[in-house]
Amino acid sequence: MDPKLGRMMLKEWVAIESDSVQPVPRFRRELFRMMAVAADTLQRLGARVTSVDMGSQQLPDGQSLPIPPVILAELGNDPTKGTVCFYGHLDVQPADQGDGWLTDPYVLTEVDGKLYGRGATDNKGPVLAWINAVSAFRALEQDLPVNIKFIIEGMEEAGSVALEELVEKEKNRFFSGVDYIVISDNLWISQRKPAITYGTRGNSYFTVEVKCRDQDFHSGTFGGILHEPMADLVALLGSLVDSSGHILVPGIYDEVAPLTEEEINTYKAIHLDLEEYRNSSRVEKFLFDTKEEILMHLWRYPSLSIHGIEGAFDEPGAKTVIPGQVIGKFSIRLVPHMNVSVVEKQVTRHLEDVFSTRNSSNKMVVSMTLGLHPWIANINDTQYLAAKRAIRTVFGTEPDMIRDGSTIPIAKMFQEIVHKSVVLIPLGAVDDGEHSQNEKINRWNYIEGTKLFAAFFLEMAQLH
Amino acid sequence: MDPKLGRMMLKEWVAIESDSVQPVPRFRRELFRMMAVAADTLQRLGARVTSVDMGSQQLPDGQSLPIPPVILAELGNDPTKGTVCFYGHLDVQPADQGDGWLTDPYVLTEVDGKLYGRGATDNKGPVLAWINAVSAFRALEQDLPVNIKFIIEGMEEAGSVALEELVEKEKNRFFSGVDYIVISDNLWISQRKPAITYGTRGNSYFTVEVKCRDQDFHSGTFGGILHEPMADLVALLGSLVDSSGHILVPGIYDEVAPLTEEEINTYKAIHLDLEEYRNSSRVEKFLFDTKEEILMHLWRYPSLSIHGIEGAFDEPGAKTVIPGQVIGKFSIRLVPHMNVSVVEKQVTRHLEDVFSTRNSSNKMVVSMTLGLHPWIANINDTQYLAAKRAIRTVFGTEPDMIRDGSTIPIAKMFQEIVHKSVVLIPLGAVDDGEHSQNEKINRWNYIEGTKLFAAFFLEMAQLH
């Protein structure tokens, strides 16, 4: 595999503005183009490719948008070999150069060995690393040590719309011969030391709308006599979490798995230079001072983040407006053994309680717009051992055995529907900045990651 | 004056996107075009017109933008006549059709006798009504009963940048012969009954910035270990005002003028159908149940409105972001005898106190970006009596003697610098919706307002 060719392909894929978060036709067209380019790449690799029509999506405002196809691809079906299925996604988070990107987010730009671009690490780079690994065997005219399947979607950042139904339907067809499922959609917790991930948090995303009327007011003409929606909303959002990060929704910690001595020991075994982590994150001070507390609050305790407000004044300058209708957005990261529906009820009841104390004449509506389960795996499965050996071969070190604070709901979904072992083998460094401005993947990670996947194929062949 | 021509001119003026709030070159160019068109109109009316270069404006981000010229115009200088100076502004608040406008905000559109368009009532319509009144005398080949001066600016919505310096400089030149100053930049408090305004609230506009770093975070990767700026900001904004509209900043009510029996009687004399007002405002319920309380909380008590947040997620959809740096915006409407600098200190100290209780590692910066004084006049001045008579002539009724909850800082400024009587003669109906979506002026108000100004000229000639 020629590294130059690998970078060219990443450049081509990053250039496609496959934003699945902003529900507008322009980005949907880009998503369809992205999936077509990927299908073509896999076909040229010799895979049998099916692009599954996913129908369309009804948005809350009544608009209907087509869902990009999911790619199912198969390469080899030798019954004496194991079959590994790789999951990836090719949609990305929104990116706008005005938000603080130093380079055009849709033009892959190399600076000091870092490849900047939206989707570079989440998740176009890792998908291409897997494809590059397969290409390497092809280029060397070697047989693939394993049968390989791909399931590639274009709606991950929007909650993998309709994917679960497809996996359910393909459970006894596409997935029937699959032994192992590999996902590479998260990051290491270090800049240089690789990791294997055996658990992720879930996520429940809420909107709370407060409405006086569907038109704004002038703050001179109406200020002083209204129950202002922003005052209500700020009070509602302010009731969710305290300044130490503790969630104030009653009952929210009831189902969180109790902490055992054994579990604490796994955190102690992980190398994490807190000072370096804090510096690379460019954060003045974290909420906690020890490595163990930091890891536990990222992995095994829930967290609540307030994302923003829709409908209020959000531009530079000074507009003297009383917004008539505002929508607050926040989400709770869920951990084993929290239940999405229970959390939905707890949050709704809490906000209703807080709102009722205000005697506001406004209307409040709480909605959970996404509900994604947490996931945790058995780290003694064959492919966990194979991945460890491959890491030893390529990087000469033991991996960090980690969990991820982010939500990779398909991990949990695959385990529940397909009942096969799922492993997460991240390629990106801790400072890659997925979901934020100046997302990047290091050139080194992209190349070594390609080697890691190739070594993993060989180890799987031995262990199977 | 032909009503058709009057409407054509309003259409032409509304079509110019003279937004002074959004500090971008495109809108600045439109502002310059707007001022040139107005200068040309006044010249064709026979006025001696000067367009005063106002230099440029330094923005907080370092950017420099040119300020549109102020028009000073004079029509007649007969020493036996009184001289009335009319102030108006031709800049507008931001308007975007996506925000809920039913028609293009920059295309004047008549529906059921209502002329919809940004600036139709605030303040392009009233400026044109004054010009139309002068044109009427010209068309009838009658001498103007008074000498007329115009001062027209293009930065009112952005705080009348640099206007005060100009008025100070012109105090003994342009303003030396001026006897009375008329402003028409507010609204009636009824749909059909005219009003004269003798006081306005001031405004102090604040930003409170909370910063962790200049880049956003992914809520999966960092949620649980950060002092999140949005949590800090929501707590800060939530500490400002309670659910009954009472401002919680310590000391803020200390300088508010005490309420007298006589003042209460002026509110009692005003006709205000609360039910109709509530319906036309499309508000379910106000904070207060009596006419007197409503009027007092709009005119003689301060109010605090939260306008929005810059830097957070403000679009449709679900983005799992922890904003790294957010700016909350709110303002306090000031009343006699509150002092802008005292309020600035009180608000800053209060926010610093609240922030310090949070032990947050983020940085907080409070700034007062606008500080505009409240204003109150003597309602026994000659021109108040002339305006009352003109209203009786044109509308056959006594005006409501009102104050305005909005800020018209130049009223206070003219009184302080020029030391001449200032009156506000609004033309627009209570439901015109200045500063909000679907701003309009009624065709009837625009035409009768033109007549009112003509009758006012005649009354002034008699009383002077």
TrEMBL record, chains A, B:
GO terms for biological process: proteolysis. Residues 199-354 form the Peptidase M20 dimerisation domain. Binds 2 manganese ions per subunit. Mn(2+) 1 binds at residues 122, 157, 435. The record marks 218 as: Important for catalytic activity. The active site is at residues 91, 156. Its cofactor is Mn(2+). GO terms for molecular function: carboxypeptidase activity; metal ion binding; metallodipeptidase activity. Mn(2+) 2 binds at residues 89, 122, 185. Gene3D superfamilies: 3.30.70.360, Zn peptidases (3.40.630.10). Transmembrane segments: none annotated. It comes from the Eukaryota. Keywords: Carboxypeptidase, Hydrolase, Manganese, Metal-binding, Metalloprotease, Phosphoprotein, Protease. SUPFAM superfamilies: Zn-dependent exopeptidases. GO terms for cellular component: cytosol. CDD domains: M20_dipept_like_CNDP (cd05676). Belongs to the peptidase M20A family. Homodimer. This is Carnosine dipeptidase 1.
